[in-house]
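Good day; I would like, with your permission, to put a structural problem before you. I would ask you to consider whether the tokens describe a fold that such a sequence might reasonably adopt. The full record is reproduced below for your convenience:
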Amino acid sequence: MASTAPPTTPISQSDRNFPPGAVEFLFEGLSYTAEKTHGPTPEGWRDVATWLQANEHDLTDVPGLLSAKKLPSGIAKIIFQLGGPQAFDRHVSGEQLCWGLRDLAVERWGMLAATVLRSWNIRRTRDIGQLVFSLIAAGRLQKQPTDRIEEFEAVFDFRDAFGHYRIDLTAEPAPAAEES
């Protein structure tokens, strides 16, 4: 999945099961997961993505546009400086996205991660897939021909992924930092 539109675009009318917070979190999680999977977004990447979107193209069009010489010279130069069209493949699988969202949720909310996700009607990994495919239908995400909602089926159990927190109440508290 790759992002094509800013998070302010409305979700499709057909699926109102997910509130705006869930949509925003999914976009943040997609960036988080892509960065964990592919490394930081290269300088200039967003310029190319913005040009493509403004001209009603997506990242999969880059090789054809390059070979047909239908890109502005500045955009083509950025693409070549970044290593060619393959440098723009920041796709993540459904499984990778589920784990990335899990990690981001735990990082952000700790023991409350599952509670926050449940408040957004996300109770299993398949719900993440339903949100993703709603955003694809709304034109806010792109999918590759191999992307299927089944990729999101039972990636992990929410109780196992979010439910094993132990707080050690016997540990000595950390010493307070001295003020200078």
Notes: The chain has a mean pLDDT of 84. Residues 42-89 form one domain. The radius of gyration is 20 Å. The longest strand covers residues 2-3.
